[in-house]
Structures are given as C-alpha cells and as structure tokens.
Amino acid sequence: MTSMTTPPGVTHAPARRLTATRRAALGLALGATVLTSACGLPDHVVGLHDAPTETVSGAPFGEATAQEITSATLTEADRLLASDASEKQLTAIMTGPALRLAQVAPRFRTGDPGALQAPSAPTILAISTGRAWPRTILATTQSDGVQRVHVLTSASPTAPFKLWLTADLLAGASIPALPPLGDGTTLVGKDHGLVASPTQVFTLYGQLLNSPTTKASSAVVSARDAFASAIKTSSAQQTKALGKLGTFKRTNAPIAGSILAFRLADGSALAFAQLTRTDTIKPTSKAKRLDLPKDLATLAKRKSVTEALRLTTIETLIAIIPVEKKATVIGAAEQLVGLNAK
Amino acid sequence: MTPHVALLKRLAGALLVLIGLVPLAFGTYAAARLGTSGSATFVVKGVGTSPVLLTPDVLNRTDLPVEIALTPRSGASALVVIGTPSDTQAALGTAGHTRVTGVDVRAGQATTADTAGRTVEPLGELTLWRKTEQVTAPATVTITQATAPESVLIAPAGAGLASMALTWANPTWFYQALVLAGSGGLLMTVGWLLVRPAPKAKELAR
User: Would you say residue B80 has pLDDT above 90?
Assistant: First the structure.
C-alpha cells in the first residue's frame, strides 16, 4: 500500500495541487483553443457574407422618381412648345410621335393646345418592368377638363427619358386598371395574346375610316366612338358637297414605329398609335377648278385648285385592345401637318 | 510520474506555446492596426483619371457602412454616382475602368482589375442614380446597407484623383482582436507551465 511505503514526513500534496492546476489550465487552454477556432474563422468574425442579389423583376425605379422625370420632361416640353425652339432643343426632350407633332410648321397650328403639365402634377399610371431598355413611363395629367395621357421613353442607359406621345382621352372614357406600379408593366410584343395585334387593330381602324370605305366593319375593332363618327360624318359631308364636281378620297394608315402598347391588369392592352390621314380632292372634268375654303386658301396661298388638293393630318389614337372582344378607341387627337394644292 | 508522461507533458506544452504564439501575434497586430474604433482602411492604389467601379461584391459583403474617401488632384473633380448594379454596369457599358475586386488585409490595400475601353459617357444627367455627388475637395461618401445591393461609379474629371480609400469600422473588431491575443497569451502561459520542470518533492522535513 502506498501509505505503507511512503516514508514518514514525506508528502506529495504540493505535487498533486500543481497537477490539478495544470489540468485545469490545460482544460481552459484547450477550451480557449476550441472557442478561438470556432469563432476565429476570419469571415465569421468580420461578419462577411455574400452580397445580396439584385432583384431584376418589377419596375426599375419608384413612383417618386417616375413623377420627377415626367414632371421635368413635360415642363420642359411645354416651355419649348411655347417658344420658337430649335430642332436640337426639341430632339433633346421629345422623340417619336411627340417630336413629329412638335415639328409641325407653325402655320398649321390652330389655337392654343393647352399645357401638357399644368395645372396638376402628373399621375404615374405605369412603369415598364425589368432592367432592360427601352424603358417607358405612362402618366396622365388633367387640364381644362381634358385628361391627357403621356408616354415617356428612354432608349438606352445613357439616354434621358423623352416625351414619346401625348394624346387626349375622349369625353367619358377611362383607362382600365394597370398592374401595381411596383410590379412594373410589360409592353405588348409579338406574343400579344389579344384579339389582334396593335398594328392590326390600328390598320383595320384606319380602313374603317377610309372614304370611299373599303371595309364596312371589323371583327376586331369598333369604329363607333366619337372620333370615328366625326371623321365618317365629315367624309360624307365633303363627298356630298363636291357632288359631281369633284372626288374625295380619304385614307388612314399607321405610321411605322409609332405603335406602343402596355399590358393591362386583366391581360388586355392599352395601345397608342399615330396614323397618317390623307385627304385628296380632285376636280372632275365637269369642273375647271375647285375654290378652296378661306382657311385652306390661306394655308395653300391660292384660292383654287385645278388638279388636286391633298391634306395630310396626323391622328394620335389610344385604344383598348381586349383578349377576345372588339378593340375600342378611347382617345384621339388630330393635327394638320401638310397641304399640297395644285 | 513516469518519465514518458513527463516528456509528453513537455511536448504538449511546447506545442501549446507554438500554437498560442500565432493568435497572440495576430491579435496584437490586428488590435494595433484597427485601433479602439475598429477601423479597417484599404487604400485603392493606381487611381487617376480612369473611372472606378465598386460593386456589391465589395460594398455589400458586411452589414456595416462603407466610407469611400476621395481626394481629387488640385483643380480636378470627381462625380460619384450610386445606383443599382445592373443600371451602373449598363451606364458604364464598354468604357474603360478600374474595378475594385476585394481587399488585401495584410497589405492594407484594395485589389483592383483594369478594363480597357472607350471613354465613359457623361453620367451626371442620367436618371438612373439613387444619388449623385460632385466632389471637388477631399470628401467622404458613405454607403449604407439599407439600399443594398448597390454599385458606386466614380468618374474623375480633369487631372483625376490623387487618392482613394475604403474604410469599414466596427469597434467590436478591436475587442475581438484583444480576445484573440489574450487567448494566444493564455495558451502560451499554459504551455510554459507544462514545459517548465515540475517541482521536485520536498525532502523530508527535519
């Protein structure tokens, strides 16, 4: 037995205490090592993590930004349209159909078209979805009881937003619900899923307004709106007034690159387009000449024509194109842009 | 205690001394480098007239704000634009630029990669940016993580930038470095205790 073999007066107590201390220290050291290793991984200690991924769906910017862009653009457009702006100034702020109308010779402009922006700030209806270009903003303003719809577009990352089109809604018309602003709105492409593509709709609508009419009705678009009625009435009146002294021909055709459509919440589309209307009046053999009305005589700088009078008008249209039923025109405006008298 | 056990203890002690030396040295160095504010600053070398792009891979890897310190050369300026990564990259297009790819902790420098290309388009008038800032004197632009992920594009004008640095600050880092150094010191102490010869048993008292 140990106690029997240990010499009297000899003790191991200090050695045992030291061993216990060493064991405790060893355990503590190992614990510290484990602890240090566990949380000592540099990335973990520093708080490094993967960078969050960018969300590329939905609108590329918010309503406030869209409103700021639209307001600034419309204000500048108003300023330019009210002044004798240069071509360079106009192209800096407008493009497409809006620029086409802004470039109309002053002599063809009648009356005050009213400000685009005033008096209220624009309301943003839609922002195109995704991160690609072109990007578009759909906005509306109210001025003198007329609701105007504006389309702005940015062609590339380094191109500013420009006013692409402005059109007035017809009295009593309204725009159906669009997707939530944050979700963004898709533009209608080739895979349109509508009763007909926007190009087909506007082409057929133009044909319905032709005179003499080549198409009495269409299965995809209605021509019973106020604008169509006015056009058809004026065609009939002009034809009747000329009688056997002259011929009247009216054609309407979409302008290439001037059609754009936003997808609505229910899958239908809100489409915009510009059409060229050409009115041609020719005297028949029974009339040596045709006297022009005073306003046209002023524009043509002659009182009569012996060969033909050709009037070119730009029609800016807004249409709702549903998935199944007939498309309807809810907005329209026209502007005489050219006159040729011989 | 047998001689074998004593030898093993000494070997273990020596090992602990060696293991403890590393965290002690690194922790002490890191604490001294970070300071009590816990600021880690990395200099972006080679800045000048070329645009500098900072992407989320650098800006948004922690939950801390990033301070970008810019010093334009005399009479020069720099336009700082902040936007979404895709918009920033699209605006930059194929323009030549310097991209900050990361940081080298030991060197205290940011690592960069240069891309050759055309001159960058004017950025100030674009409607892509969440924020723009024109810098004409030494200034600091702070990028928070609230709107992450974001990219920053710095377009120098004139003589360009004299210097640029990125700083992340977290006081906790200083104390973590101290704990690391302390852990290393503890390991070394224990190791030394094990290496030290055990006191011999006292002789029989008189």
Answer: yes
